[in-house]
Amino acid sequence: MSRSRRVAVGAAACLSALALGAASFGGRPDDPIEDEPIRYSASTPTDAAADINRNIASGKLKLAHDEKFGYLPALLKAFKIPISSQMLVFSKTSFQRDLISPQNPRAIYFGPGAYVGYVLGGSVLEIATTDPKLGAVFYVLSQDRTSKPRLYRQNHECLQCHASSMTQGIPGHIVRSVYPRPDGQPDFRAGSFITTDRSPMRERWGGWYVTGTHGLQRHMGNSVARGAEAPEPEDLQGSPNLADLSKLINTSRYLGRYSDIVALMVAEHQTNLENLIIKAGYETRRALDYEARLNVELKRPNGFRSESTQSRIASVVEPLVRAMLFSGEAALTDKVTGFSGFASDFSAGGIRDSRGRSLRDLDLSRRLMKHPCSYTIYSPGFDQLPSEAKSIAYRRIWEVVEGKEKGKEFAHLSEGDKTAIKEILLATKPEFAAVIH
Predict the structure, then answer these.
(1) Are 152 and 24 in contact (CB under 8 A)?
(2) Are 182 and 66 in contact (CB under 8 A)?
(3) What are the domain boundaries of the chain?
(4) Alpha-carbon distances, residue 185 vs 94, 96, 330 (angstroms)
């Protein structure tokens, strides 16, 4: 077998459900996320999946069943997820792991706040959403044809990984780079990497197929680990700069021919930001709930805010602000180009100012975004943060773009960057303008 045919990709965007069942399973009773004010399992989600279920039940939405792909095309359309977002991973991390291999990778598609996993021959589609208050919520949808399909929520089994140290203890998303064996099984003894936009490219995409060009930059994708010891990253380059996957797998069995490098980079950024938004929301709600109970006990006025509570909230907002402004982002040393059309699809969804600028404008030569402020600032999760957290985030961003913040964490932002971010936000985010003025 040639080296290019040994490409193995596998690993680990555990972005979807890890367990199958027709009912909702609760988290552990002693899990902090099950306590007030979160009550993760007992709370009813208000995410995009809940909207889809409600529209199916009312007859407003009918999911067409495709003979080849089941409900996948219809579900992507319902979530407004582009096919160009397709990413292929063959690690055995899904509960459908027995079906996954280098020849039969798992496809993951994503859009704002929603991720859909598809395994050829699998009995279900795997869905993960981002609920504005609960965080990551997990579902499955049977691929069997029925008059009224339904997305069934999954909790306990999924949360064993998705509410762990890998997600800072909150229900979140995981994108991971591993050393996959030739059969797609990750070799966890060799280590793994949680992947964000801060990750150097040499540590990204171990266990993934990667299509597109990236010049002389090297990554861990399109390769397998052989032998007892993990190979060095430069030994993992089976097929860099791939135009498409037609020589590696039977792409006719998927909706697209790609596992787009730009989609992978955007997904890594988005999942990390969504997790940080979730974390800020959780900790702020906990801080406010604790203080409300303390106010009653100490007979303090309703709504009293102590300095310690304000400090507690600010401490969880600061990492979010830094990530939102791409502090610590790994620089690109060569231009990145994808071929699936994802870059155009992604940018087309941006909210634009009068000069046509958007926070979804991509750079891809030096960094991910042309205007380094995350588009997740428009997400329902950010919009529904408690006002105490959101106002701090807005003010901190304002301090940075106005040049009042001199910390090294934001030294990567040029004066042009700051001006563009400020002008775009003032024009497209009315709440931002209202808070800082």
Answers:
(1) yes
(2) no
(3) 4-259, 262-436
(4) 11, 13, 28
Pairing of strands 135-142, 176-178: unpaired
Question: Span 177-185, mean pLDDT?
Answer: 87
pTM: 0.89
Question: First CA to last CA across the chain, in angstroms?
Answer: 65
Nearest CA among 20, 46, 94, 12 for reference residue 383: 46
For residue 145, give both structure tokens. 């044809």
Judged on CB neighbours under 10 Å (0-12, 13-18, 19+), 287 is buried
CB 371 within 8 A of CB 421: yes
How many CB atoms are closer than 10 A to CB 399?
Answer: 16
pLDDT at 97: 73
Give the span between the Cα atoms of 152 and 259, in whole angstroms. Answer: 28
Residues 433/395, Cβ–Cβ less than 8 Å = no
Interior angle at CA 84, CA 245 and CA 378, nearest 5: 145
- Give residue 36's Cα distance to chain centre: 26
Residues in the chain: 437
Residue 210: half-sphere exposure toward Cβ, Cα within 13 Å:
29
Region of poorest pLDDT, from 222-236, 246-260, 306-320: 222-236
The Cα–Cα gap between 75 and 124 comes to: 12
Cis ω before 37 (30° cut-off from 0): yes
User: What is the rounded radius of gyration, in angstroms, for the C-alpha atoms of the chain?
Assistant: 22
To the nearest 10°, report the CA torsion of 367, 368, 372, 376.
-160
Q: Which residues of 84-102 are buried (b: 16+ CB within 10 A; e: fewer)?
A: bbbbbbbbbbbbbeeebbb
- Residue 97 to residue 48: CA distance in whole angstroms: 26
Distance CA 359, CA 275 (A): 19
